Amino acid sequence: MTNPTRRAKVLIVDDEADTVEVVARMLECRDFEITRAYDGDQALEAAHRVKPDLVVLDVMMPEQDGWLVCAKLKAVHPSPKIIIFTVLKHGESDRMAEFVHADDIIHKPFTREQLLAKIDLALGDGFCQPAE
Prior knowledge:
This protein is α/β, with parallel strands linked by helices. It has a single domain (9-123), classed as Rossmann fold, CATH 3.40.50.2300. The protein has helices at residues 17-26, 40-50, 66-74, 92-99, 112-123, and strands spanning 9-13, 33-37, 54-58, 81-86, 104-107. It has a five-stranded parallel β-sheet, sandwiched between helices. Helix 2 runs parallel beside helix 3. It is globular, with a radius of gyration of 14 Å. 32% of the residues are buried.
C-alpha cells in the first residue's frame, strides 16, 4: 500500500495470555499499535478507550464469548474491523461470524502469513505497512 497515513491500532483478545502474546509476536513485523485484552469485559473497555481499527478476537472465552463481544462492538459507531479466530469447525462458526457481522474469520491453527493477509484485507489502504 502506498502513502501510509498512520499506524493501525490493533486490539488482540483471548482469555489465554500465551495466545495473545503469540498473535502479538506474529504482528511484530508491522508498525501496529497493539493493545491486549484477556476477556470480554476488558475487550469492551479497551475498545472504548483506544478505539482500535482492528480487533483480533477469540471466540471461546468465559463470561462474554467472542460472538457477544463482536456483536456489542459492531453496535458501536464507528466500529472497528473484527477478525474472529477460533478452533471451532467451519460451517457453523462461519455462519455465526456472519450473523454477528465479523469482518472475517480465521481458523486455528493459522500461520503468520494467513493472519497478515486477513488483516491487510480488513484494513485496506491508509495504514503503515511492513518493514519486512
